[in-house]
Amino acid sequence: MNLRTLRVAALLGACLAPTPVLAWGSEGHVLVAAIARSRLTPETLAKVDAILAQDKDQSTPSDMLSRSYWADVWREHGHRETALWHYADIELDHPDLDAACYGHPRSAQPASEGPAETCVVDRARDFATELGEPATTPAERILALKYVMHLLGDMHQPLHMADNHDHGGNCVAISLGQPRTVNLHGYWDSVVVGELGKDARAILARLNGEITPVLAAQWTQGDFASWGKETNAVAVTVAYSFPTPPRCENHMPPLELPKWYDARSQAAAATQLKRAGVRLALVLEKALGPLSLMGVSAPPAPPAP
Questions:
Q1: How far apart are CA 2 and CA 111, in angstroms?
Q2: Which of 158, 157, 187 lies closest to 171, judged by CA?
Q3: Looking at domain 3-288, which of 3.30.70.2570, 1.10.575.10, 1.10.8.640, 3.40.50.10470 is its CATH number?
Q4: Whose C-alpha in 94, 103, 219, 282 is 20 to 30 A from the C-alpha of 253?
């Protein structure tokens, strides 16, 4: 592991302290941000840190990894108008991304003003575009960066890109062994990520080590819509791969997971986290790499040891 990755892993360990359960779990979002951070060029990394250094919001710590789950904290603290931005309910029985994205309404200017009825695919794209525009105000650029970091993670969580008339699995109870239960969405948010391991450094090192140049090249192809459809396919083939996909039913006892489900889910989640990290790095490089942003001065490089 190189020195930069070690620094990221140290930050990762600090950020994986117990926190509220959020989309992908805060742990999942931090892993995505950590993978992306380890892949950024020094110039782009300096710009990311310089933008975040201007942020006075105290909802989360101010580092890149902690800001990766800021959008969930913001939503849960009185900003429900942003709730639909985190997912796209592509129905199993009628898969239609256009419908799940409310017909792709035009983004407000600035993007942080809405619209409320839109989906994660369009929001991620709109904030990424805004992040890379020289005319974006410093305050809006901060928001765009935080949303890009978060929404790239969300759109790789399978149950943020699929629905079986069950609120993305939120009303399907899963048994984890009596008396522990969780809903299917919560399983994919947090349980499956927690099962990847207990040591944050080891998880990050393993995931980064599995990203070969060939895989990275494959994963950087396509666009936001194709990435969302790919995640939906993971939901269909893995997350909802029950003999009969469950729906919301009153008084339905918690489902027992098939014996093979945990292993397949962990493998799929690991792949999705890696894809999200690689693609987040790509998006940040495209938005910030070639720009000299007005009002954002990158800190000087440290002296060579």
A1: 37
A2: 187
A3: 1.10.575.10
A4: 94
